[in-house]
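Per reviewer request, we include the raw input and output of the structure prediction for the construct analysed in the revised manuscript.
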Amino acid sequence: MNVLTVLTHPRLALGLLAFGVLLIASGLLAGTSLAADPKPAAGALAKPALTVNTVQATTRSIPTVLAANGNVLAWQEASVGAEIGGVRVQELHANVGDTVQRGQLLASLVADGVQADVALARAQLAEAQANSVDALANAERARSLQNTGAISAQQIAQLLTAEQTAKARVESAKAALDAQLLRLKHTQVLAPDSGTITQRSAALGAVVGAGSEMFRMVRQGRLEWRAELTSAELSRVPVGTSVVVSAPGGAQAQGRVRMVAPTVDPQTRLGLVYVDLLGPVAPSKAPLSQGFKPGMYAQGSFMLGKSDALTIPQQAVVVRDGFSYCFAVQPDGRVAQLKISTGRRVGDASGGLIEVLGGLPQGAVVVAGGAGFLNDGDTVKTVATAPKATTTAPKAAAAASAARAP
């Protein structure tokens, strides 16, 4: 059968055309399938979603800290007032914020009237002493004539009584003079102790009354922090416990527990712990009074010792839906999202550690940074990091040794 016969025969031409269309269609489908769904090579891994640093969960000795809040107050306050009344304030020598020493002059009162009273008391004493000399001479003569009968026994008794009366008047005049001298001394208002002036209620030219307060001061400049703790927490804080107190402005002070309150407030169910503020935390050179003021509200931490705990960096913890998670790296390069329970924290969020109470096995390798960008099952590429503990351990040991040295 030649070509012309095939082309002129209707059935054969139609069959050839259909066969050619089928060949072209099958070729196109095969090419599309190979381009759209290439089979990966055997043993190939998924592309990593992120390159991360890893760290191994290890057991460390970390401090046990009890946090609390409370007020900063003066250790003791001294009220300085006028001891005499009815006199005006002549001059003020101290102001709020001044640091004064014991016996330093704080205010002067007008002393003209008191000085006049002192002069009058001196004159009365001189008069009493003159009368006493005369009475003493009469009594001596009476004694010499007592056995001669020149004067009666009644006259002798009167003269001896006059002698005793004159002596008593001299003593009374001396006491009156001492009282006036004491009033004159009290026109100088002196500091009863060293400390810092926190309040001045006296005004220049004002007439003060006896006992009226003129100044208020913090004795010896000592401050204390009164921490508020629950009944269960009070038993954990013995006297002498070290404390670090932080002011709202960021200043920190070292403290020591002086006393634990013997009672608990029945309304709040809280008890007070009295902490003496000893000085600023090194290496700060600013005085304690610069960062802490009486009346401010401060936070503090009681150092209750140390204990071993499983720790990971704080950056490795991700909080999602109110729960804490970390990502453990599996042998195949994928990460597993683990729900953990956390405890104590050491240091700040950028370089501190956090205690893992449960949910993470000992020695697990977790993602140290960038965990917030991962999901469960993601493939990661890990980068080896130099162990900081190896390079910093000698320095840390030396610092700890220096801190323990007296």
